[in-house]
Design goal:
The protein has 510 residues and is mainly alpha-helical. It is built from 21 helices and 5 strands. Helix 2 packs parallel to helix 15, helix 6 packs parallel to helix 8 and helix 18 packs antiparallel against helix 19. The N and C termini lie far apart (89 Å).
Length: 510
């Protein structure tokens, strides 16, 4: 080794890069919640309400009870909580939940399979390319009519959001929508608002969205169709308000680009709508598939709506002869059959269709497992007999309030929960079993609790940075998150007032 090498100063070591904080996944959060609830069960005294013939708690009958659970029993509940969350069975006499008991299914096996089935269906539909191409054709056809383009795309996204939770799928449309909006004289914020708010308002006003309304209705022990009239009216009004808000901002930016909240990147002002690549035409096969998808969701809505109650306003009305009264097992079968039909029409072949269905179920295993873990938490609370104690403590807060104030309370109390539990399915499974019985005390339909809950979850997901739809969307659009917040906060304020008004009206109406 040369002397020069011996005298060369040692290179300075660079300090290790600081790891950025990443918000834990929903599974991790629920695992922590499971441990926390299990530990709190040692401190919260067990208690119970008397139940009526429908199994609902009777107000004013809460009383303390003695628990015969040993420490080993509690450890066993913790160990088996995910299993009980899937297929735990509740003993009719003792109320205890376990995988080897006889009684009524308490776990969320039905919802679990339903989520996997609709995941398979959605994946098969997207694999055909029909939905992507249909939206692309719509956007291109309206490329020289700016306001109409915004309205058309937002309506489609909102419709998909309200029936099937269309949200993360929107991330694939930024590459198409942004150039079209820039070519029409708008900025990147218009494209971002069109996509995020279009789908987001649909999810906020979910009518039969299986991942929001479906899971929450199951946890509240009501039909998926209960409350659909109120949610449909909310969807019409809130979607119109949101579209008007985005169109108003878009017109302001086109008239005066200096008023843009996002600004313009180099080359943004050089786009030309006439140069936008035209998506391929919809084939006859694509048209058939789009019609088939529409019919499947229309039939799902028909099958779950309690038509006699919806049309007469009487919750106890005798069902009409044509009502199906389907629940999650039926809907799971519907979407599995529909996935196969779409694959057959698309000529996938046996190998590709099987692989796509399996891949679709695999892609949706995460929200399905979140539902199972969240249900496992309620099993721990049930077996330690603290559920009614928690319910009784909240009863003291809402007792004496009007039904309208109760509905607003449900909306407000779910806002921080939606931030802490970013998974819609997990939030629903965890919170709704506690909040739904409160509706019985307030003389309000449990469907109002579901509507208020999903509105809170949807409202938060329009802006919180813990959702891939929001943070991923602003990243793809190349705009700052702080600028997006400046753009969206006035709309959030208006929506919150409207939501409170609707849930209060729904509480009084029912």
């Amino acid at each position: 080794m040369s002397s020069a090498a011996d005298t060369r100063p040692a290179p300075e070591e660079e300090p290790p890069a600081k790891k950025k904080f990443t918000f834990p996944s929903a599974l991790t959060i629920l695992a922590v919640v499971t441990l926390a609830v299990w530990a709190l069960a040692f401190l919260i005294p067990p208690g119970a309400y008397d139940r009526n013939e429908d199994g609902a708690p009777v107000q004013g009958t809460y009383h303390r009870v003695d628990s015969d659970q040993s420490f080993v029993d509690r450890l066993n509940d913790l160990f088996l909580s995910p299993v009980n969350g899937l297929y735990g069975v509740q003993d009719a006499k003792t109320g205890e939940v376990g995988p080897d008991l006889a009684g009524e299914l308490y776990g969320s096996a039905g919802v679990f399979l339903f989520v996997l089935a609709i995941g398979a269906f959605i994946t098969v539909v997207f694999a055909t390319g029909a939905l992507d191409r249909g939206i692309g054709r719509l956007a291109h056809r309206l490329r020289d009519r700016g306001a109409l383009l915004i309205v058309g795309v937002m309506l489609v996204f909102a419709l998909l959001g309200t029936v099937e939770g269309f949200a993360e799928e929107t991330l694939g449309f930024y590459g198409l929508i942004i150039p079209l909006m820039l070519a029409l004289g708008y900025d990147r914020m218009v494209a971002t608002g069109t996509i995020i708010l279009g789908a987001g308002i649909g999810v906020l006003c979910s009518t039969v969205n299986p991942f929001a309304t479906g899971v929450a209705s199951s946890a509240a022990d009501i039909s998926l169709g209960d409350g659909i009239v109120l949610r449909a009216i909310m969807w019409v009004v809130l979607t119109a308000v949101t579209i008007a808000y985005v169109v108003r901002y878009a017109n302001r930016v086109r008239e005066n680009p200096d008023r843009s909240l996002s600004g313009f990147l180099p080359g943004d002002r050089e786009h030309n709508a006439a140069d936008a690549a035209e998506p391929p035409e919809l084939t006859r096969l694509h048209q058939i598939i789009l019609v088939l998808v529409g019919l499947v969701f229309a039939f799902m809505i028909f099958s779950v709506v309690p038509w006699s109650s919806a049309l007469t306003g009487d919750a106890d009305a005798t069902p009409y002869g044509f009502e199906l009264g389907w629940s999650f097992p039926h809907l799971a079968a519907l979407f599995l059959v529909a996935a196969v039909l779409v694959g057959v029409f698309a000529r996938f072949g046996e190998q590709r269709l099987s692989a796509t269905i399996i891949q679709g179920a695999a892609d949706f295993i995460s929200p399905a497992l979140v539902i199972v873990l969240a249900r496992g938490v309620t099993v721990i609370m049930n077996n330690s007999q603290i559920t009614d104690t928690v319910l009784h403590s909240i009863e003291g807060v809402v007792s004496g309030t009007s039904s309208a104030l109760f509905a607003v309370f449900v909306f407000l109390v779910n806002l921080p929960l939606a931030f802490l539990i970013p998974s819609t399915s997990g939030h629903a499974t965890l919170a709704t079993p506690i909040l739904a019985p409160l509706a019985d005390f307030a003389g309000v339909s449990r469907a109002v609790v579901v509507t208020a809950w999903q509105a809170a979850s949807g409202w938060m997901n329009l802006w919180v940075p813990t959702t891939a739809v929001t943070i991923g969307g602003v990243a793809l659009a190349k705009i700052g998150y702080d600028r997006y917040l400046r753009f969206v906060w006035p709309l959030l304020a208006v929506l919150s007032v409207l939501i409170c008004g609707f849930v209060a009206l729904g509480a009084v109406w029912t």
